[in-house]
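<instruction>
Derive structure tokens from the sequence
<data>
Labelled lines for chain and fold:
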Amino acid sequence: MSHDPEEPSYAAALRRRQESLAAARKADKAAARTTPTRTAAGPADAPLLQWAHALAGATVRVQPSALAHRLVLCYRLAPRDGAPATGVPALVEGADTREAFVRRCLELQGQGAELLGGYDRASRRPQVLVLQHGDVTLTAQPAIAPAPTASLTPAQMLRKAEQDALVRAKSGGNKDAFGQGRQGGGKRR
């Protein structure tokens, strides 16, 4: 773009800053189109969350990327000023390829982070991380059992609900706190 040569330096700096922000927004929009957008944990993520809490304790922060990618990494950043690491929450984040996973592990190791473990969401298996000479080896552990499901079939649940409704009807369980039916009627005090 050609600009006025007599443009003040502050105006030129402002224009350059706005152009760079516009380019960054455009790049962010392009990246957002290719990045999975799932952010809420569902029942299928229960083994992942169980693994993270068992590994790191109660203070775990799950990044949205952990719920959308196949490989998941759990780590704890090194505390600043040499403070004890007990108060620092563990972070859980995801990577879509093994190469990205290894690259992130090496970056975190260079930053002094404590790598707690990995998890493969596809096989529901925790992974042991072994870092040697700039390479990360993943070794699968036994799979985590899925969360227990209801012991009743849907037909049994319906029969039980019908029986409960019948008991409530016979015992007057449809009355409100004032002894009146739920349809109203009567004078309340």
Notes: Residues 34-38 have pLDDT under 50 and may be disordered.
